[in-house]
Amino acid sequence: MVEIKTPISDDVIKNLHVGDAVEISGYILCGRDAVLPKVISMIENGTVGSLGIDLKGQVVFHTAVSVAGVGPTSSNKLEIESSIEPLSKAGVKLHLGKGEIHSETIKALEEHNSVYAIIPPVTALLGSKTSEIKVLAFPELGMEALHLIKVDKYPAIIGAVHGRSIYEK
Q1: Are 29 and 60 in contact (CB under 8 A)?
Q2: Radius of gyration of the chain (CA)
Q3: CA spacing 20 to 30 A to 25: which of 12, 39, 71, 129?
Q4: Is there a contact between 164 and 18 (Cβ–Cβ < 8 Å)?
């Protein structure tokens, strides 16, 4: 088991391999198809700093946050997968979700020394490993707003890193 603490350094990513089991601890961002395009717009227009966090070394979990807890959504939804490259370029080191992503996205992860990890849909387990929840932006989106959560030992499996994917046939 590889223990990863946020923020994540380039050296941590360098030492990961497809199929590695990891546990993620620290603060991570939560966003999915409704909010990630808005974050990309903020990066493009230079206002992302107004969120009060640094994207460098950050984790983005493809999820909504509700009273039912958090659980991964499909990372290959257009609005989510198209956010992976610009977020990686902006410094995000780990994208957390579920499902197969496209080869172009895997190449973009490699180019920006970022990684994609798969988290099993285990909402009850993740709820017990989440200790803080804060809405950072876009509260009008409700559970799909951009959230910052504090986690302790979130389990995941590295799904794509260094140009390779766990889904390769």
Answers
A1: yes
A2: 14
A3: 39
A4: yes
pLDDT digits (tens, 9 = 90+) for 118-137: 987 676 677 788 899 999 99
CATH topology of domain 2-165: fumarase (3.20.130)
Strand partners, 94: 59, 115
Secondary structure of the chain in the HEC alphabet?
CEEEECCCCHHHHHCCCCCCEEEEEEEEEEECCCCHHHHHHHHHCCCHHHHCCCCCCCEEEECCCECCECCCCECCCHHHHHHHHHHHHCCCCEEEEECCCCHHHHHHHHHCCCEEEECCCCHHHHHHCEEEEEEEECHHHHHHCEEEEEEEEEEEEEEEECCEECCCC
Query: How many angstroms separate the CA atoms of 161 and 169, rounded?
Result: 16
Distance CA 42, CA 25 (A): 26
| Short-list 136, 128, 62, 64, CA closest to 101 | 62
Q: What is the dihedral of CA 35, 41, 44, 48, to 10 degrees?
A: -50
> What is the amino acid identity at position 15?
N
Report the C-alpha gap between 134 and 117 in whole angstroms: 23
Block residue for tokens 């603060």: 27
